[in-house]
UniProtKB/TrEMBL annotation:
Protein name as annotated: MmcQ/YjbR family DNA-binding protein
Domain of life: Bacteria
Organism encoding this protein: Maritalea myrionectae
InterPro entries: YjbR, YjbR-like_sf, YjbR/MT2646/Rv2570-like
Pfam family, one: YjbR
Length: 116
């Protein structure tokens, strides 16, 4: 599992990202004003959670694995949440976070993309 610091360092390294802390100290990363990844701790879980936008295939397959579930409040938009029980490496997280970034960037209006 990535630490919050590792998560933030990776997300900040992606071009044109912005960061805000909201929803009870969640670390929220955006591209063009749209969220692509979140690091949080839900009181009901007592575990750190990384949530991100998933591709259609990933959203269908990932929640079948231990430590991964449709993301609270964001599942309808095909987001998943991953906790330490998934046993993911940093490389696994990096690949999915980068993919989330690309998915969200691709859906931005042309006018927004042109300003980045």
């Amino acid at each position: 599992m990535l630490s919050r610091e590792e998560f933030e360092a990776y997300c900040f390294a992606l071009p044109h990202t912005t960061h805000v802390v909201q929803w009870g100290n969640a670390s929220v990363f955006k591209i063009g004003g749209k969220i692509f990844a979140i690091y949080s701790r839900w009181d009901t879980e007592d575990k750190d959670i990384i949530s991100f936008k998933a591709s259609d295939d990933s959203f269908r397959i990932l929640p079948e694995q231990t430590g991964i579930a449709p993301a609270k409040y964001l599942a309808r938009a095909k987001w998943v949440q991953v906790n330490e029980d998934a046993g993911w490496s940093a490389e696994d997280f990096h690949a999915y976070i980068e993919n989330a970034y690309k998915i969200v960037f691709a859906k931005l209006p042309k006018k927004v993309k042109d300003t980045l």
